[in-house]
């Protein structure tokens, strides 16, 4: 083949423990798409497609390569000053040399040069065309293609492909990255399926989606079609917002209707003024919902778990906290969706530039009814 396409990478990057296998793929890919000056201006979307990964994964690899000093980058909108708003498009160039890298570490010891046991030093007879003869560094001759033919590559027997030990921080970072990628894929797929996604509040939809577990994400997507069909069957002309569908887990209502006679749900009645009433009143106050009271009895359609009863001793609403953290909001939304029934007002409200809500503590109570990282004045009142 004339004019073969080559990609040269710095030798030090191969043994850099701060890099990951995907980073070396990215480094090689940059070298395939350079211009005469050595810069790669290829779209990240197209490069991600070549590597079979998401754009966010490719971006993280580029960031690690840049931070490690193996690539340099420049703004493609170079007419803007460097201290202006971050650019949405960069060009990258592989740095073949790094001043702080010890090239002597790549040199073999003197004893290795004379060792005939090394495959690179062994004499390999050729077939006259620069290709090793069969049996020397190539797979056995057969009907299939020979991957090493014409390359001089050697196949080493008995090598171990066990991965290098990776720092705990790197493992945790990868796990978080996989969760983010899964969440982004779910949100994108949900927006494709939900009719009102274009006009919905995107931030609220993201909050509701972040509160779902992997199993709930699958159930939510599977329930979109049956839920919309049920709306048509009932003659509903409007479709609720996507964030409301996710936050209230409305796909579960379909199963409740199928599993109970006439779609009815068993409910319990409690005396007003009792512990159960105080707990439910505080819980519904967080959710901005109204308790159903009939003939002096508080009607509740769920179970009085220790988590619900924990609200009986919360402090007065005037001492509640303003919750804006995304993870805390998602945790509260998931908890309220599982324990509050009936019509609810939107949980989040705007104060200045922030979207949030008031709650007795940063996080919902644990399953045993205790509160995490909360002072007594925040959750249990003054003792």
Please, could you describe this protein's structure?
The model is unreliable at 134-164, 256-266 and 374-383 (pLDDT under 50). The protein has three domains: 11-80 and 87-101, Arc Repressor Mutant, subunit A; 176-263; 268-379, no CATH class. The strands form three sheets. A three-stranded antiparallel sheet has the order 3-5-4, covered by helices on one side. A three-stranded antiparallel sheet has the order 6-8-7, with no helix packed on it. Strands 1-2 form a two-stranded antiparallel sheet. The longest helix is centred in the middle third of the chain and has 26 residues, at 168-193. Helix content is 38%, strand content 9%. It has 383 residues and is mainly alpha-helical. Helix 2 (21-32) crosses helix 4 (55-68), helix 3 packs across helix 4 and helix 6 (168-193) packs parallel to helix 8. Strand 7 and strand 8 (354-359) form a beta hairpin. It starts with 10 loop residues before the first helix and ends with a helix. It contains 14 helices and eight strands.
Explain the layout of strands and helices:
Layout: H1 11-14, H2 21-32, H3 44-51, H4 55-68, E1 71-75, E2 90-94, H5 110-113, H6 168-193, H7 202-210, H8 214-233, H9 242-247, H10 251-259, E3 268-271, H11 275-286, E4 292-294, E5 297-300, H12 306-309, E6 321-323, H13 326-339, E7 349-351, E8 354-359, H14 376-379
Antiparallel strand pairs: 1-2, 3-5, 4-5, 6-8, 7-8
Helix pairs in contact: 2-4, 3-4, 6-8, 7-13
